[in-house]
Amino acid sequence: MELIYRSTRNANETATASQAILKGLANEGGLFVPDSIPALDVSLEDLAKMNYQQVAYEVMKLMFTDFTEAELKHCIDSAYDSKFDTPVIAPLVNKAGAYYLELFHGSTIAFKDMALSILPYLLTTSAKKNGVKNEIVILTATSGDTGKAALAGFADVPGTKIIVHGVSPIQEKQMVTQKGDNTFVVGITGNFDDAQTGVKKMFSDAELAKYMDEKGYQFSSANSINIGRLVPQMVYYVYAYTRLVADGTIKAGDKINVDVPTGNFGNILAAYYAKEMGLPIAKFICASNDNKVLFDFFQTGTYDRNREFILTTS
Question: What's phi and psi for 228, nearest 5 deg?
Fold first, then answer.
């Protein structure tokens, strides 16, 4: 059965997985979310016997139902290869009584490599599936490591260009050194919401879309607003759990807590989706640094778009 994605701002706007990946953002600025989360159809014990690429297929096949097995495995194998410095891709290590999932083995040493390594292949495959002839222009807003990871992921991928909007001097140094004939970096004055708002306005500008189409281009996004980035993040939660089953630390069905250090909720949302898929998770812990806008929102009920962005070294 094909899984349908629906806009959070217009329930009548629907898309297949490949269409949602291509568009990135729905017409009225909403996010494409699945109508339902399919349950894992392979046991946790069997998943525990698989490597990262095999687990990725078992998770993604349920969310990207209009991809063929060959298409999806091509995307997975192209993403999770020698660009990671360990064949395990995401080692789970035990330190001081806690388990840590190492998501820093990709090309930019950021956890976002886990999703942004596969997104270009999902996107170009989606374009072929939907008969898209235009070149895909990736628009990405960033206040952290998304920009560099996105640039590295899309660098020199045929049929794509990528433009990243960054907000800090540190980002500028990271991103302007990225090699690739199809990569472009734009600095802005403001915080992440200013960058994200600018991107969303461009996505919803009908005249701009018409002009882009006339020139042979169309927009998509590499931010976590794109389901093609969120779903690959679900994989490493399933993988981490099944490593604990594999080494006998827990039994299949035992519940674990997930602690995510994050600047926004994209990463922990992927963990929630994994739970909805059947992963036994008891509690989600979302830890923030001084850039704690979401913590403040849940404490006060007020979202401050004009807050100051704080640069930290930790």
Answer: -70, -15
Strand 14-15, strand 5-7: pairing: antiparallel
- The Cα 304–Cα 101 span in angstroms is 32
Q: Which residue do the tokens 């260009």 mark?
A: 161
Cβ atoms < 10 Å from Cβ of 257: 10
Q: Which two tokens stand for residue 199?
A: 């991107």
Alpha carbon 106 to its chain's center: 14
Q: Which of 188, 173, 182 is nearest to 150 (CA)?
A: 182
Adjacent-strand bridge partners of 95: 98
Q: In this predicted model, what pLDDT tens digit does every residue of 140-185 receive, in sequence order?
A: 776 666 767 777 777 777 878 887 766 566 666 667 666 777 777 7
Query: Could you give the count of Cα atoms lying within 13 Å of 294 in the half-sphere of its Cβ?
Result: 13
| Residues annotated as catalytic (active site), given as ranges | 112
Query: Average pLDDT for consecutive 10-residue bins of the chain (314 residues)?
Result: 93 96 85 96 98 98 98 96 95 95 91 90 92 84 69 78 70 68 74 73 82 84 81 97 97 96 79 97 88 80 69 45
Outline where DSSP puts E strands in 8-102: 14-15, 32-34, 92-95, 98-101
Collapsed DSSP state (helix, strand, coil) of residue 72: helix
Let me know: does 63 contact 231? Beta carbons within 8 Å.
yes
Residue 130: C-alpha distances to residues 15, 79, 120 (Å)? 12, 21, 15
Sheet strands side by side (includes 14-15):
14-15, 5-7, 32-34
State the Cα–Cα distance between residues 33 and 233, nearest whole angstrom: 15
Nearest Cα neighbor of 107 from 145, 143, 52 is 145
Other C-beta atoms closer than 10 Å to the C-beta of 305 total: 12
**Cα–Cα distance, 205 to 198 (Å, whole number):** 11
Dihedral Cα 287, 292, 298, 300, nearest 10 deg:
150
How many CB atoms are located within 10 Å of the residue 92 CB? 19
Measured at the CA of 114, the angle between CA 132 and CA 125, to 5 degrees, comes to 15
